[in-house]
Amino acid sequence: MPPKRKQTPLDDEDSLSEEVEDVSEDFIRVKRPRTESVKTAVQDSWIDKYSPLNSLEICVNPRKLKELREVLEPMIRGTLECRLLVVTGPAGCGKSTLIKCLGNELVAKVKEASLGKSELNKSQEGDFPNIVEYFDSELQDVSHIRHFSEFLDASRYRIGSNLALIVVEEYPNVFHHETLQSFRDCIRNWLYLPGTLPPLVLCLTEIEIESESGHRGYYNIENNFTAETLLGRALMTHGISSGVVQRVKFLPIAKTFMKKSISKVIQKERVKIPPEKQVLFLSSLYESGDIRALLSNLQLWARTGSFDSDLSGKENQISLFHAVGKVVHSSAKFASMDEESSDSFSIRAVLDGYNNFGLLHLALLENYQIYSGLQYEVAVAADLVDALSISDTLGGLEESHEYAIREVRHQLRNVGESRGRTQPMKFPRHFKMLKAANKVKREVDNYSRYIGDSRVSFANVNLLDGYFVPSIYNSFRYKLQNGSKPYSYNRVGGKFQQIFADDEVPVMESEFEHELGVKDQFAMEIEAKMGGSEDRNDGLSEDDLSDEIHNTTDDDNDNDFNDSLDDKLVSLTQRHDEDELSDDPELDWLVSQGRL
Questions:
Q1: Which is nearest to 320 in space by CA: 364, 286, 254?
Q2: Which residue stretches belong to region Disordered (predicted)?
Q3: If you compute the radius of gyration of the chain from its CA atoms, what whole number of angstroms results?
Q4: For 584, left (φ over 0), alpha (ψ -120 to 50), or beta?
Q5: Across all residues in the chain, what is the average pLDDT?
């Protein structure tokens, strides 16, 4: 009986390779990489490795920490009427980490006071055991908004001994109109639910999305993802005024706090940056104000050994008002340089950090007077406006944007140093004008379609019908002859009003969502006709939508046509000797237009 062949263990890689060598010498011994090394590489991410364990370790301004604590602590204790805290800011400013760390600590204190320390330790699991975070659903059979609604319903009971802070960082597809409306309904229902609720925090990274064409008729969520466009102006304004909503705004992390945190990481990791490149390399990273991007770039360059300051890895985006301030007042960062160099570097920072130059030009037109309290010659203001006009005339040329910005800075530099108190900046009134124009166009189109004559031009309806028809319909004589209506007839398209600039963003969420105006009789009649046409279309079948074809002769058609034509000619030739409405020229005009 031949001896049994010794089996090679499956986990012995050396013996396995020897067996392969016995079969053929052409094979090369290859060892599979162990999965542990992959896990180690993931765990070595500096973002996770140096993530703060408590609120005091977070790289953030202490005043912002105090501001957030003053709002969040009474919300958790239930002594504040506020039910929703909206925290906004740019990416990497530490807002979400601060919310989780601070919220976890404050909830633990409340539980410890009510349950005791021993019971509290039993329920502590995970990094943030007192935080309930929403994650967007990936289930195919469950819609995103339904999953979010069910999440809020389940979170209602995280009170008392089961208290937790509800944090929402991920959102459903709010760029879809119906989903956005459902999301707002969920938030609105949460704000006005009866009984006790846990504190809810919305953490939002505000961004400005650059469109392909650069033109936009609305300041909406499709091009600006902010708290106003997400929740809506009405919900934000009413919620803040009633006290059920509060907002905390974060700014990019200041360079001073960034230096303290990054220097500790460099010392622990022993990152060897050449002295001649250290200042320039780190300065380019500090400018972003994004601690998360800074750690990622620093880790990448520390491993590759390439400390190139030109590779920033992240664009340094600045806000609209920040860009206007750099152009109008120049940047304080370059104040130590001569005037020409300071202006040049300030303009370059704007060109590199801001991309919506059309809006920037409008903002400069609105805010150039804040420099030195407008204490300079009118000719300077005229030169500023001419420079902005020339830039618009040149169109989309890249040089035109730079010309306008540099000319504005040059003219204001010649005025001299700014004197007096700095005035607040105002948002351009351009979007308010677009909002009003869209409202007029929408109402005029509805009037022409359902009440007036669609063949009349938009200009005539807007200027003639828009003014004269409401005046006639609201007159005493017309009401006496035709009866009164529940509402008055307002001007078609609304009244002409002045548009003023202010510091608030004129949000119009989408072209499908419009601001509710004063209800008038025109709107009631249009709604009634729109509803009636929909009901008629819904009640018709396919057979009703098509007319039956009758077998008729040409003689019958000719006779019918001739009879109808004769009737019309007779009616046109008949004249009344006495016109009952001749004493009212306004009604005569309506009759001549076929309105009565």
A1: 364
A2: 1-21, 531-596
A3: 35
A4: beta
A5: 75
CA nearest 379: which of 411, 405, 406, 410?
411
What is the spatial distance between Cα 68 and Cα 203, in angstroms, rounded to a whole number? 12
Question: Hey, how many other C-beta atoms are within 10 angstroms of the C-beta on 550?
Answer: 6
Question: Strand, helix or coil at 67?
Answer: helix
- Compute the Cα dihedral for 181, 183, 185, 188 and give only its sign: negative
pLDDT tier at 436 (50, 70, 90 boundaries)?
confident
**pTM score > 0.85 for this model?**
no
Give the pairing of strands 245-249 and 207-208: unpaired
Q: Are 480 and 486 in contact (CB under 8 A)?
A: no
For residues 206 and 317, is the Cβ–Cβ distance under 8 A? no
Q: Phi and psi dihedrals of 584, rounded to 5? A: -125, 100
Phi and psi (nearest 5°) for 540?
A: -85, 140
Provide the b/e sequence for 446-464 (b: ≥16 CB within 10 Å).
bbbebbbeeeeeeeebbee
The pLDDT tens digits of the residues spanning 243-286 come to 999 999 998 888 888 888 888 888 887 776 666 666 666 777 77
CA dihedral over 279, 282, 285, 289, signed as positive or negative = negative
Helix (H, G, I), strand (E, B) or coil at 345: helix
CA 241 and chain centroid, separation: 21
Tell me the CA distances in angstroms from 333 to 282, 319, 338, 415, one per residue in order: 16, 17, 12, 21
Please state, in angstroms and rounded to a whole number, the distance separating the CA atoms of residues 344 and 354.
16
What does the block give as tokens for 8? Answer: 């090679």
What's the pLDDT band for 167 if we cut at 50, 70, 90? very high
Nearest to 123, CA basis, from 167, 158, 73, 74? 158
Residues 172-229 pLDDT 10s: 988 888 899 999 999 999 999 988 999 999 999 988 766 554 444 456 777 778 888 8
Token duo for residue 479: 């009401």
Residue 266: exposed, middle, or buried by beta-carbon count in 10 A (0-12, 13-18, 19+)? middle
How far from chain centre, in Å, is Cα 165? 25
Q: Which two tokens stand for residue 478?
A: 């017309």
**Which band of pLDDT confidence, cut at 50, 70 and 90, is reported for residue 340?**
confident
- CA dihedral for 250, 256, 257, 262, sign (positive or negative): positive
The answer to whether 108 touches 84, Cβ cutoff 8 Å, is no
